[in-house]
Automatic annotation (TrEMBL):
This is Condensation domain-containing protein. Residues 18-428 form the Condensation domain. It comes from Deinococcus knuensis.
Amino acid sequence: MTLTASPTRPAPAPPVPRTLPLTQAQLGLWAEEREQPGGTLNHVAETLDLRGPLDPARLRAALSDTLREVPALHVRFRDDGQRVRQLLGPVTPRAPQEHDLSGHPDPDARAQAITSALLDAPLDLPGGELYRHALLRLGPDHLRWVFVTHHIALDGYGMHLLLGRLAATYRQEACTPFDPLDAAVLEDGAYQASPDRARDRAALGAVYADLPFEPAPLLTRGLKRGWRAGRDLPPTLVRDLRAGAGPLGVGWPDVLFALSAAFWHAHTGERVTLIAAPVMLRLGSAAARVPCMIMNLLPLRVNVAPHDSLRTLAAQVRETRTRMQPHARYRYEHLWTDLRGRRLFGPEVNVLPFAAPPDLGPGLSVTARTLASGPVEDLALTFSGWAGALHLSVDGHPDLYTPAQVSGLCDRLIRGLDLALRDPDAPLPPLLREHA
């Protein structure tokens, strides 16, 4: 019997990457990267402090599985000078750096130094490095996960989806796959060619029609990562906020937008507050279950008189938000071009009503903290709420504010909210001035 060698089969060809355009939000960020390569302004970062009987091997597996499920974190960008595309190919999740700091004389200080290094080193976008992460052991039952990515990959809601999937995967629950990135990108492109775009452009342009031209400060001062101060509001104040919104005929987020508008008037003297309100653009969208970058900034114009009350301003905010929300898809970068580089916004104000920390299961305490969420032009105020808790973060442009001033503004907002809820018919701006 003669044995013959089996014919050698050719190795399978590597899969051809799928090619997609960028969303309009991504295009703006790519343009910034092309103009100033290697920057860190658009880094976003989150930490999870995990305390309790954690299984590190299970967490590593959950991280790997979760990151594999998010194509936006693994694309490659190709820019030929005419157009830029993103390529989706095979995904190999990046392993976290690991540091055991439990024996260090000051583990928290060392952890902060490692975290700063992760945040402040440029990501290599052209080379496909869209994120990095680390696991830091600070004690026998204390582990910290640090995750840094570029805004071109994930917006705040995309991060929310990622953290929720990580928690469910660690709990070993069956998860429905995320919807494909393609659907979100193609829907974004379809809007750019739709009649809705022209309608939305006109509605947003009308916000500024009677205002004098003022050049955007970013043209001279630039965007920078701000100094940050944060406070947990007292539980009694959170209860008063939720209880006080009903008699005013508004939701409690409207109260916080009204507070912010009056604060800007008290802080600057401007009678027109142009709030930059982040909008996630997910409700009823193909991007509802897609971790990606799609969010926008919507201008909310609030006209503030010195003797306006919380009741008056909250009603104005509710009406303005209801009227402007249908036009939220028109990009603020396009509006900035339409208006020839005029200043679009005063403060950025983000209200996150359902910002609960991820639930990794019984016995585990999880504290989530956002370290960086992009650059600021002046001030950014973020109110993150869940259950009976509410956290305020204030970011101030480092050329305009010192860390101590940012901290003082944070305290002033909380004090003003307390005073305003006690008497919602009192003039609000005086309650928010420095001497109040």
